[in-house]
Design brief:
The protein has helices at 15-29, 39-51, 54-74, 82-85, 97-104, 108-119, 122-129, 137-155, 162-181, 184-190, 193-217. By secondary structure, the protein is mainly alpha-helical. The protein contains eleven helices and no strands. α3 packs across α6. The longest helix is centred in the last third of the chain and has 25 residues, at 193-217.
Length: 218
């Protein structure tokens, strides 16, 4: 069922949010330290306030959760027809995501950001937002974009060589790490004649195969 949409102008704010706004407004206007006789204590307090990021991080978390909730509500609404997905002025009277977002006061960019952030798995979102360095909306949006792309990739039909291609990427990554750690000269010295002969045969096979792969990739 499509939720009833209100505009930002008419929307109500939670009482705790309003109280927090008032408290912050008072904090920005009033300077208690100014009346302190102990100037050293006042200076220390000013320094501590300038370095404290608690309020800023809390505001970032509130903003992130609000835009994610917008995205979750928008995802409950049908995406709409192809006509509504084109870059045309959204019709507020429609019950599509675009029309509903427009009615609520969200720009096209904010709508996309909200939906992308809602695509981030809840556990990952909470872990990121509650971290000591909560990510920006742009960073969360990019994470949601990658999540959606990865989901589409995982569910799309795979070519016949997909399994081997995946295995190759892991093998190349492991071998690259080995090359970065191991000294080729020391490895060569440690091989017996029999081991070196077998290694050369394997390397010849690998070199021929990689040349063929590189030729087809290029």
């Amino acid at each position: 069922m499509t939720p009833k949409i209100q505009s930002v102008r008419d929307a109500k704010l939670p009482a705790t949010y309003v109280n927090a706004q008032r408290a912050l407004a008072d904090c920005s206007r009033l300077d208690e330290c100014k009346t302190w006789a102990d100037k050293a204590a006042a200076m220390a307090s000013y320094a501590k306030q300038s370095q404290d990021e608690t309020l800023m991080k809390t505001a970032i978390r509130i903003q992130a959760r609000a835009i994610r909730r917008c995205g979750e509500l928008l995802k409950q609404i049908e995406g709409g027809s192809t006509a509504h997905r084109r870059r045309v002025a959204p019709d507020p009277s429609t019950s599509t995501r675009k029309g509903s977002a427009y009615s609520a006061g969200l720009s096209d960019r904010e709508r996309k950001t909200a939906i992308r952030i809602a695509n981030v798995p809840k556990a990952d979102f909470e872990r990121a937002v509650e971290s000591n360095s909560p990510p920006s909306l742009t960073e969360l949006s990019e994470a949601g974009k990658r999540e959606a792309a990865n989901r589409e990739y995982l569910t799309s039909p795979k070519p016949p060589g997909f399994k081997h291609a995946t295995a190759l990427l892991g093998t190349l990554r492991d071998f690259t790490e080995f090359c970065n750690k191991a000294d080729a000269a020391l490895v060569a010295e440690a091989l017996s004649k029999r081991e070196a002969k077998r290694a050369l045969r394997d390397m010849e096979t690998i070199t021929t195969w990689l040349k063929s792969l590189k030729r087809r990739m290029g």
